[in-house]
Amino acid sequence: MSLRKKLFLATALAYIAFLIFPLFTSFSGLSIPIVSIIVASILIVLYPQALRSKTTLWLILYLFAFFILLTLRGHVELNMGSISGIQQLFVEIGFILPSYMIMSILLYLKDERLNKIIALSSLAMFLISFIYLIPLLSEYRTLLRGQDNNKLIGNGKLSIQGLPTYSLMHAYIYIIPPILYAFKVFKGKLKWMSLIALLLFLYIIYSTYTTTTLIAAILCIIASLIYRNKGKSNTVVSLLLASFAFFFLYQTGAFNTILSDMNEIYEGTAVEGKISDFQNYMEGEELGGASIAGRDNAHQISWDNFFEDPLLGGGNAGDHSVLVDRLGTGGLFLFIPFIFLLITIAKIQFRGYKSPTTKFYYIMGLACVIIVMYSKGLFATEGWLCYCVLLPQMLLWVEKNDITLSKKIRTKKKIR
To answer: For the segment 358-401, what is each residue's pLDDT rounded down to a tens digit?
Structure first.
């Protein structure tokens, strides 16, 4: 491996560790936006030629539109806290550019060894961080939603370091599709290791008490169980059976029983109100609970601002949807380059997969991204890292191993 590749790998892994290994982030005391700008600068110096693509054009157009809106209004209403002005542009660049550069360099180099190292190292970082979190969660059930942590800190008893950020808690869902893919296609030890990793991720997602990712995780598991990579007919049969099971549970009232039990499990958390709202809806009432109504109101603010000025937006947003907020605050002028940036990134990754099964699980990952982007106002560095790098690289590694294992099995059968 050349020196330049080693420098790239070291920089990429350090950045990944900084974002997805919360203990490292907490004890370093470094600011994520500053680290992101430094990392992006290093990667551009190492491989400037990796930026030569149509996707980069959409990134430039999006950042240019962002800059123009800042120039016109002095502030772009997005979920970025209290910062305003040119700082917002630097934060947005910090969110996107480092992960975009890592992705672009990997696509430019086409080095399977680099892909494997980044995929497996990232997964290992996630799992090691979970080993630290699980004992804490066994003692403080709602720790990741802040209730126990804030109470302890407020009483001066304890300050807990190494907790994942809100955006990282939502990013865990993007790793579920590659692990489900691995569990589905691997045999022997790798299958059991995939199952352990899946259970750990599901436990942490459950412990975050974020309704969006909980629902997305359940949908991913159902889709994986239904999908059959040996033929479309098998998938259709599985889908029909799943639909029948859903109808049966609904008609017998079993869903209400399940939802009541879940309400007891999530008592005192943000999920409880949303389960109650859905339970009332299943019983024929309108969705009017505070948890759902609040999100709808936030989305409506963005939509109202968009329709006020479809081209440039009304300048305001509800701060509860990455996608709708950009329509509200910047209209089509900001939204079009942003959405084409997302689409072109997805197209590049999708074309790199050989197996229909890999493509299925990538689409599953994209569905999770869309769900989070629509329902949450913050994608941040962790979201972009998973979207641009971790999700596609982990899928590539699983695909490569699946193809290799399939070839070995066919070779053994021929010998026999």
So the answer is: 999 999 999 999 999 998 888 889 999 999 999 999 999 999 98
CA–CA gap between residue 326 and residue 303 (Å, rounded): 10
3-state SS record for the chain: CCHHHHHHHHHHHHHHHHHHCHHHHHHHCCCHHHHHHHHHHHHHHHCHHHHCCHHHHHHHHHHHHHHHHHHHHCCCCCCCCCCCCHHHHHHHHHHHHHHHHHHHHHHHHCCHHHHHHHHHHHHHHHHHHHHHHHHHHHHCCCHHHCHHHHHHHHCCCCCCCCCCCHHHHHHHHHHHHHHHHHHHHCCHHHHHHHHHHHHHHHHHHHHHCCHHHHHHHHHHHHHHHHCCCCCHHHHHHHHHHHHHHHHHHHHCCHHHHHHHHHHHHCCCCHHHHHHHHHHHHHCCCCCCCHHHHHHHHHHHHHHHHHHHCCCCCCCCCCCCCHHHHHHHHHHHHHHHHHHHHHHHHHHHHHHCCCCHHHHHHHHHHHHHHHHHHHHCCCCHHHHHHHHHHHHHHHHHHHHHHHHHHHHHHHHHHHHC
112-157 per-position pLDDT tens digit: 999 999 999 999 999 999 999 998 888 777 777 654 454 454 445 4
The tokens describing 359, both together, are 């493509």
